Amino acid sequence: MSDETPESLIPYDEIVQEALRDVVGRVLGEVERSGGLPGEHHFYITFDTRLPGVSIPKHLAERFPDDMTIVIQHRFWDLKVEGDAFSVGLSFGGVPSSLRVPFAAVTDFVDPAVDFSLKFQANAVEAAHEEPQDAQNDEPAAAEADDGSNVVSVDFTRKK
Question: pTM surpassing 0.85?
């Protein structure tokens, strides 16, 4: 008998990634509908700036050529959630900016208020994942939990 697991003909990893990205969309959709964040909730969202559909100002794309982390907390506006992306207004160095981010570009979603975190594989680019830089929009940084509670990390590897 062989100890190797047979390669699946069902794309489980893609299905799970898509379902977890739907969680991000549902959470942001609730914030959009309610008009603000409940309680102490706030989000750190890291995304791959190189993926198709990402729309950020040129100066930010030059500053963050690979990935970028934003904070949705006190100073954000015009949060809109679509089926495959979200858009939001944030301030960077006092300059208001609009961003549009497809959910497929999101690599990390963290709500430090409740120690919740989701990590994703980049959908379109299989580049080495570097640690995200600190959030760069005009929000104070909060410490992230390091105990791993309520963390869902999905890291699928395929046999070649």
Answer: no
